[in-house]
Design a protein that fits this description.
The complex is a heterodimer of chains A (about 270) and B (about 220). With about 270 residues, chain A is α+β, with helices and mostly antiparallel strands. Chain A contains nine helices and four strands. The model of chain A has no long low-confidence stretch (mean pLDDT about 85). With about 220 residues, chain B is α/β, with parallel strands linked by helices. In chain B, the strands form two sheets. A five-stranded parallel beta sheet of chain B has the order 6-7-8-3-9, sandwiched between helices. Chain B has a four-stranded antiparallel beta sheet with strand order 2-1-4-5, covered by helices on one side. Classes of the chains: A alpha+beta (about 270), B alpha/beta (about 220). At the A-B interface, helix 1 and helix 6 of A face helix 2 and helix 3 of B.
Chain lengths: ~270, ~220
């Protein structure tokens, strides 16, 4: 790129500083469009609400006199039963899946039929002082209302339309601030395509500003969500694809800026 | 005669068929001057636009700086335009910038070599009679000096040909003489002139000093 073009771009960017009141709102709406776009991707779509899940447990209380070796043998045996999906030891003072008073082997089973089978086997097993069943209903993960995704979509459309309107407004101010320079350059014989470059550069800079705002929002929400499990459960996509969201966000922001600048640049007016 | 501009049988009609320029022919020597005279709307500015290929002629030929202007591709028109000084009737001045900043802007935008820039600026200021006015904002200059600054801008890249659209228009008598002296100086320094005016006087003086002076009268009944 020739030094002349670089100079023109630099001069236009300086002029851009003089109309900050116009391009800052433009950047803000572009950032809003990016945030809304990210929300459309991240928020889960409309689906049937999941039913509450029921977990079935069988607790086998172990005899006090049982040696470690016998405990291990019992655990290996229960683990070999196909009806058992998970198992683990619990000790007095623990509270999961219920308050435990003495050493117990907790077995999770898939359904009622499996529970009956496992209970029968435990009753017959050596070293088991007592058997207890436990049924626990687990609430489904929190869900965002379906309207939130629609709201994000509406926000995306509105902010995109707003960014185009504000781009024309900002570029109009830029052109009127730079009219003499444009006329002089046209009279000096600079090609129209070359004269568009400074305006496109202004658009790209406004886009980069929007990208910075978007990234601050995206990573800010992501960091905040790490401490709020309900948000992570409601929108699991929030914690994945950070690099993609960053790169795409910057690219889309710059493209939006360039598009706004191209649409906002006025057609050539012949000098008299 | 070493010709820098040759216009031959130039013709221009509007889309509606109104004939504005018809069979216009004249030549300008490399050290010469042409004065295009005509009332308002007689096609003076149009002729300059045709020379700059802002608009294309309906017929005829324009040879400028050895190029057939009508047949040049857009990219080469741009290059040719950089070699021709053009002073509009309504010059584009950056009113908030100083005289010096105006000239430097044009030179830097056209990628003039940095090492030559101080000399180019000095010569443009001297030629336009703006010595000592470098630091004055263009918007604070009186009308005649604004015209001089427009001339300095047109001459900044030291073109061999200068097209001046109505340089004396709306100037007071004394200012007209100042402008004529400056234009005389430009021509004497080796730049060919094409100047438009509504009347032959007082601009005819430019032709008297020129070794090859041409007075072109444009038809008066043309309507733009």
């Amino acid at each position: 790129m020739s030094s002349g073009v670089l100079f023109i771009i630099g001069d236009a960017l300086r002029a851009m500083l003089g109309c900050a009141g116009r391009w800052i709102p433009w950047s803000l709406t572009m950032a809003a469009a990016l945030v809304a776009g990210a929300a459309v991707v991240i928020l889960p779509g409309e689906e049937e609400p999941p039913a509450p899940a029921t977990h079935l447990f069988v607790l086998a209380y172990l005899e006090q006199a049982l040696s470690e070796e016998e405990v291990n043998r019992l655990a290996w045996e229960t683990w070999s039963w196909p009806e058992v999906s998970q198992q683990g030891f619990r000790f007095a003072g623990e509270s999961e899946p219920k308050d435990i008073q003495r050493r117990a082997l907790v077995l999770q089973v898939a359904d009622e039929q499996a529970r009956v089978v496992v209970e029968d086997r435990l009753h017959a097993a050596d070293g088991v002082a007592g058997v207890e069943q436990l049924r626990r209903t687990v609430a489904p993960p929190p869900r965002l209302p379906g309207a939130s995704r629609i709201g994000a979509l509406v926000g995306l459309v509105l902010s995109l339309a707003g960014s185009i309107v504000l781009a024309r407004w900002a570029m109009g101010a830029m052109v009127s601030r730079w009219t003499s320079e444009l006329t002089l350059l046209r009279q000096a014989g600079l090609q129209e395509t070359l004269l568009r470059l400074p305006f496109l550069a202004v658009g790209a800079v406004a886009g980069v500003g929007a990208a910075a705002l978007y990234l601050a929002c995206y990573w800010g929400v992501r960091a905040w969500a790490q401490g709020v499990p309900a948000v992570l459960e409601a929108a699991p996509a929030l914690t994945t694809g950070g690099a993609t969201a960053t790169v795409l966000g910057v690219l889309v922001a710059v493209l939006l800026g360039l598009l706004g600048a191209a649409l906002g640049y006025p057609p050539r007016r012949h000098h008299s | 005669m070493d010709v820098i501009l040759q216009v031959s049988e130039l013709r221009f009609a509007t889309d509606d068929g109104v004939l504005i320029l018809d069979q216009l022919s004249f030549g300008v020597a490399r050290d010469g001057a042409a004065l295009l005279v005509g009332p308002p709307s007689s096609g003076k500015t149009l002729l300059l636009k045709l020379l700059l290929r802002d608009v294309s002629p309906t017929g005829g030929q324009i040879l400028m700086l050895g190029r057939n202007v009508a047949r040049l591709p857009a990219r080469k028109v741009s290059l040719l335009r950089r070699r021709v000084g053009y002073m509009s009737e309504h010059p584009a001045l950056m009113h908030e910038r100083t005289v010096l900043e105006n000239i430097e802007f044009k030179l830097r935008a056209l990628a003039a070599p940095r090492e030559e820039m101080p000399d180019l600026v000095t010569r443009a200021l001297q030629l336009a009679g703006l010595d000592g006015r470098e630091g004055t904002p263009a918007g604070e200059l009186p009308p005649v000096e604004q015209r001089q600054l427009a001339l300095a801008l047109a001459m900044a890249m030291e073109p061999p040909l200068l097209l001046c659209d109505a340089p004396l228009h709306d100037l007071a008598d004394g200012d007209e003489q100042v402008m004529l002296e400056i234009l005389d100086g430009v021509r004497a320094a080796g730049t060919a002139l094409v100047v438009t005016a509504r009347t032959a006087e007082p601009a005819r003086r430019l032709l008297e000093g020129a070794p090859q002076g041409v007075l072109v009268r444009l038809r008066q009944e043309a309507v733009l």
